[in-house]
Amino acid sequence: MLDVVVLVSGGGTNLQAIIDAVESGSITNTRITGVISNNKNAYALLRARDHGIANRCISPKDYASREEFNEKFIEAVDEWKPDLIVLAGFLVVIPPAMISKYRNRIINIHPSLIPSFCGTGFYGLKVHEAALSRGVKVVGATVHFVDEGTDTGPIILQKAVEVELDDTPEILQKRVMEQAEWKILPRAIDLIANGKVTVRAGKAIVSQ
Ligand code: GRF
Known about the structure:
The protein has 208 residues and is α/β, with parallel strands linked by helices. 36% of the residues lie in helices and 25% in strands.
């Protein structure tokens, strides 16, 4: 059984996709042991509550220094003994100590086809604004392991989405979520839970 802790900051539609997939059986061998948000008003926390999943808020704002927050944050995650940590729209920088402690056991969903439109400053709507302003015809999403860089870890799954003529950043963001993010994030968790993802020489090898 893969014990998963999900980290969220906002609406939590990706969290919802994971919960639904666990409940419907399209993610197997997995249970969500807890959800952590840095934002006490995150709608994602209500989604966890509604499904009887343990949840809590831990915010950098409540600590005198980033070091102190990082320490308490790692403790909070450790308490739920995760086999896998899922960043589902989590906007806080992951402490380096957590990355090395959970090497190749933290995954993130990014709303572009990495290495396009990723790295520092590319988050939320900014990703879709940049894609539209460059005029690309295909966008998408990526699930990857988290390493010390920004969006640089081994890529597990990607899915492409067509750009349409009248797209705005908001419309494109929604289509990327519906057609790519909500599909490949649950799929990646199921693959990991069933031992189908390994990392070799810095690359994720996926046997489907
Ligand atoms: C998603 O677009 C995700 O790719 C990005 O943040 C957004 C989170 O949305 N990193 P939600 O909170 O899952 O609805």
